[in-house]
């Protein structure tokens, strides 16, 4: 989650607990016996969730859901052939082949079974079209372009340029041009991290090996930022941004650890303990090994051969042991949702731990065989949408969880906003200031959490912005104005009164 700085508020950040009502919806896209649709790459675009999925008629194509109904967007590669190859691989899940820029969804696809994927675009109405042809630039591999991110309305991604060699590329939607931009060869599975108008990545230095580099789009130059594993290489696997700091899962001389990085010259290993020998060992490309929850960072580590969850306080720099979750050092994923923190265990079950450990399948009335895949998911309009193994007859299908608990808190950070006038009759206005580019959507909900109006997701540049919120068609009463980031995690809410 990118950091956001908002003006001083006239209203208090608040929390309203109500009785939780949970439900679930299993959506079978591929109805063949024993076959699943394997949905991946969930991305919010124009108040719906887009993703890749497979059925018996169209192969792997672009699909869309609102949590209730699901439909095919287009059969880009006609018939049973797929628009995206290797869709079941870990690469597609982790590397992200979709990105929203402005009013357009960009994604990887091909319209031929013999041609590798390029960059396609979709406006939400007209059929998708090819935006940038990669055939003349990239290596003839069927691995898709991946690691999509947006920076200053430019799309950046990783693509194969020769056997076993990748490059970072850029695509400018305004002029339709694209090119290879990095001067330091990137690590094969590097994340791309937008940071203060620059792009951070794991690149190869001629003497130090793989370390953190920064690409400056203005000067079009790349420089080494920091060497923090000397001697040896740095391998970045996963990152999240909280409170103006970058948290990294990366290899070091102490194994795979969790680091906090200021984006410049200071980096700190926060998971390693010389006495306990803790390590963030996971499946190399697994995601969500840590998350921000209730103003603390929770992460899973191996301690003396057993996996546990720890809690780190960014304010004090202190960490504390929380709970054992696995009897072996396999992967564990952490996901915050509606006031709960979910994790998986060695039985492939998902649990909530707060004061009492509860099984997710029991909370949401799921079949006992259901195993949700929290290594890729999205939270959208109070729904948690993910892939899940349902049973042996249905395979991996789309799972939608709904928790009606009105829990207005910040999984990332508590922030504030100016909302005026309040009370309002026609329009009210929301003032905010951003330190970095940020995809934001804003919605107005009633006191029961039902959405009454949504401002669709849009990329906002750094600086001050005023968002107009229409009130004319709303009935008198009290509403909640909620600011949401690009993953649709609630960042802030304020009380809004309609005359």
Write the SSE topology.
Blueprint: E1 22-27, E2 40-45, E3 48-55, E4 59-65, E5 70-74, H1 90-95, E6 98-101, E7 104-109, E8 118-122, E9 129-132, E10 146-151, E11 154-162, E12 165-172, E13 177-180, E14 193-195, E15 198-205, E16 209-216, E17 221-226, E18 236-242, E19 245-252, E20 255-261, E21 267-269, E22 290-293, E23 296-303, E24 306-313, E25 318-326, E26 334-337, E27 340-344, E28 350-353, E29 357-359, H2 360-363, E30 371-380, E31 383-391, E32 395-403, E33 418-420, E34 427-434, E35 438-446, E36 451-460, E37 463-470, E38 477-484, E39 490-498
Antiparallel strand pairs: 1-32, 2-3, 3-4, 4-5, 6-7, 7-8, 8-9, 10-11, 11-12, 12-13, 14-15, 15-16, 16-17, 18-19, 19-20, 20-21, 22-23, 23-24, 24-25, 26-27, 27-28, 28-29, 30-31, 31-32, 33-34, 34-37, 35-36, 35-38, 38-39
Folded structure, characterized:
By secondary structure, the protein is mainly beta. Among the domains are: 19-189 and 347-405, Neuraminidase, CATH 2.120.10; 418-498, Macroglobulin (MG2) domain (Immunoglobulin-like), CATH 2.60.40.1930. Helix content is 2%, strand content 51%. The strands form 10 sheets. A 4-stranded antiparallel beta sheet has the order 1-32-31-30, with no helix packed on it. It has a 4-stranded antiparallel beta sheet with strand order 2-3-4-5. A hairpin with a 2-residue loop joins β14 (193-195) and β15. The radius of gyration is 22 Å and the shape is globular. It starts with 21 loop residues before the first strand and ends with a strand. Residues 1-19, 87-94 and 407-415 have low confidence and may be disordered.
